């Protein structure tokens, strides 16, 4: 049988769990709206393509695809900010490192 003191060490306080749930909720809302926006942009581009408006349709499709590709980077950036607000320094620095690696790989890829 475990003691109450051991149980307190194993489980996080509800305030920490609540802030983590809010963080996950904020990230999920960002991703949902991002995918929804991408879908609308690409769908509008396809509709305009059918209606024979090629210049605008291509731009809308490209914008939707660029946003869809950039959503993971936006998610990592938002996670850095949310960990900074929560003052969770370990996860903030780890996520900041991941963001720097992602951005560095993009810029390195453009250089080569």
Give a brief outline of the structure.
The chain has helices at 4-10, 14-50, 54-86, 89-111.
Topology:
Blueprint: H1 4-10, H2 14-50, H3 54-86, H4 89-111
Helix pairs in contact: 2-3, 3-4
Structure commentary:
There is one protein chain. This protein has 112 residues and is an all-alpha fold. It has one domain. It is 89% helix and 0% strand. The protein has 4 helices and no strands. Helix 2 runs antiparallel to helix 3. The protein is flat.
What are the salient characteristics of this protein?
112 residues, mainly alpha, 4 helices, 0% strand, flat
Shape: flat
Number of strands: 0
- Helix segment count? 4
Category from helices, strands and their pairing: mainly alpha
Order of helices and strands: HHHH
Low-confidence spans: none
**Taking all residues together, what is the mean pLDDT?**
84
What is the CA-atom radius of gyration, in angstroms? 21 Å
Count of distinct structural domains: 1
How far is the N terminus from the C terminus? 61 Å
**Major sheet details:** none
Instruction: Please report which band the strand proportion falls in: under 5%, 5-15%, 15-25%, 25-35%, 35-45% or over 45%.
Output: under 5%
Percent range of helical residues = over 70%
């Amino acid at each position: 049988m475990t003691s109450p003191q051991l149980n307190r060490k194993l489980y996080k306080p509800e305030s920490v769990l609540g802030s983590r749930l809010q963080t996950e909720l904020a990230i999920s809302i960002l991703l949902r709206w991002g995918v929804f926006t991408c879908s609308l942009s690409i769908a509008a581009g396809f509709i305009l393509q059918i209606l024979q408006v090629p210049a605008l349709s291509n731009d809308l499709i490209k914008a939707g695809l660029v946003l869809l590709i950039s959503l993971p980077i936006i998610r990592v950036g938002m996670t850095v900010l949310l960990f900074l607000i929560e003052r969770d320094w370990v996860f903030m620095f780890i996520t900041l490192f991941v963001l720097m690696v992602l951005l560095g790989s993009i810029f390195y890829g453009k250089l080569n």
